[in-house]
Design goal:
The protein has 16 helices and nine strands. By secondary structure, it is an alpha+beta fold. The strands form two sheets. Strands 2-1-5-4-3 form a five-stranded antiparallel β-sheet, sandwiched between helices. Strands 7-8-6-9 form a four-stranded antiparallel β-sheet, with helices on both faces. It comes from Fictibacillus halophilus. InterPro entries: CdaR-like_regulators, CdaR_GGDEF, GAF-like_dom_sf, PucR_C-HTH_dom, PucR_C-HTH_sf. GO terms for molecular function: DNA binding.
């Protein structure tokens, strides 16, 4: 180790790049500096040794998702988030990660970023570890300087987002101007995502959600806003897969990681259509909201339907319902079942709805209803006798199925 009698990181370095080079010079190891979402801020130059994970981070300007996931699984990131001390990280060969030491850059309990030191030709000593703590203190000052004005910018971004969501900024050119002023790259197509939790979204949970969105790398978040227990994102899918598959993949991994990493479950998620114009963001928002409405009112079988395009016939139930209301429509067959159930305390209505919902699968229906197969067959026979429903007629079954769903969706005892 080089002989330093005082703090070698005191003073102003002018940029994080200069600080990274200084840390590398002092410790004689390659160095990278990241923000709290693992986006690359700076890296040291002119070193000979490196590893695939570091190369990928420099090329992509962010730590690859598979590397972040491995660091979570190995408990590295949780330790960094809880401690001021350096954490030694062993080789993880399957993601190309060599031996390194990391330290969080902190302001009190808030993590501002991370310094990673790659142990290529040497292993850091205890004295090196103390120097790394001094480097983190110096990096904190620079990251805090970078944050000056960030709060005001975020307020401006949220104001712009709400105007787009509510249709109060309909002109595309005006929106593009605002995005340019806020240094937001106007990437299209994009969709509105709604992530709904059971509890109100606190600043800490908001940070966790945006962290997962940034690390996931399936979507690029342009704008975000918290609203009571909902987190709203305007995001563009990123990758070679079809955009809607990327959106679905993000939602699925979001569920998993919120539970595994932050112990948050009971989450609903929805996203609207991908729009090719920012003036249509309101449309995508309304579609995402309608997906949530279907999930909440119909429950079970719809919870896996996250994208508006996945709703199928559910997209049009409100229009069908409005027409039926105008025509004072009632499904007499279903009304007969309701009346029979009331008089005889039976469950024929629920039995038929379950049977049709499960695509007439007798095994699944009997399992869900917790009845024997013979009991189910008896009930179906009784239903046919009471209503004259032709179970071989797709037209009758489709209409009955839709009426079941509208009855639940609109909470109307109208049938």
């Amino acid at each position: 180790m080089k002989n330093y009698q005082s703090d070698p990181f005191k003073g102003t370095f002018g940029s994080l790049e200069n600080l990274a080079d200084k840390i590398s010079d002092v410790l004689s190891c390659p160095v990278t500096i990241e923000d709290q979402n693992h986006r690359l801020l700076a890296y040291s130059t002119h070193e000979d040794g490196t590893d695939p994970a570091r190369i990928a981070t420099i090329i992509g300007r962010r730590v690859p998702e598979k590397v972040v996931n491995s660091l979570w699984k190995d408990g590295v990131i949780p330790r960094l988030q809880e401690s001021d001390d350096p954490v030694r990280v062993g080789t993880i060969q399957n993601v190309g990660l060599g031996d390194r030491v990391a330290i969080s850059i902190r302001k009190n309990n808030e993590v501002l970023g991370y310094i990673w030191v790659l142990e290529v030709e040497k292993q850091l000593t205890s004295d090196d570890m103390q120097l790394l703590k001094l480097a983190a203190a110096s990096a904190k000052s620079q990251l805090l300087q970078m944050q000056i004005g960030t709060k005001k910018k975020e307020e401006n971004r949220q104001e712009l987002f709400w105007k787009m969501l509510t249709g109060n900024l309909p002109q595309e050119e005006h929106i593009l101007e605002k995005l340019h002023e806020l240094n937001i790259l106007p990437v299209l197509p994009a969709a509105v995502f709604i992530l709904q939790l059971e509890e109100e979204i606190t600043p800490a949970i908001e940070k966790d959600i945006l962290y997962l969105a940034a690390v996931n790398q399936k979507i690029n978040v342009l704008l975000s806003a918290a609203d009571a227990n909902q987190m709203l994102l305007l995001a563009s899918p990123v990758g070679k897969e079809p955009p809607l598959e990327l959106a679905k993949s993000f939602v699925e991994s979001f569920f998993t990681h919120m539970k595994e990493r932050f112990s948050v479950s009971d989450i609903k998620a929805a996203y609207g259509s991908l729009v090719t114009s920012f003036s249509h963001v309101e449309k995508s928002y309304k579609e995402a909201s309608s997906v949530l409405a279907v999930q909440e009112k119909l429950g079970g079988e719809t919870l896996t339907l996250n994208g508006y395009h996945e709703l199928g016939i559910y997209q049009f139930l409100d229009a069908i319902y409005e027409k039926q209301q105008r025509q004072s429509y009632h499904n007499e067959m279903i009304r007969t079942l309701q009346e029979y159930d009331r008089q005889h305390k039976t469950e024929l209505y629920h039995t038929l709805e379950t049977y049709l919902t499960l695509d007439e699968n007798l095994n699944k229906a009997s399992e869900v209803l917790h009845i024997h197969m013979n009991t189910l067959l008896y009930r179906l026979k009784r239903i046919s006798e009471l209503t004259n429903i032709d179970m071989k007629s797709p037209h009758q079954k489709i209409m009955i199925y839709l009426d079941f769903k509208m009855n639940r969706l609109f909470k109307q005892e109208r049938l």
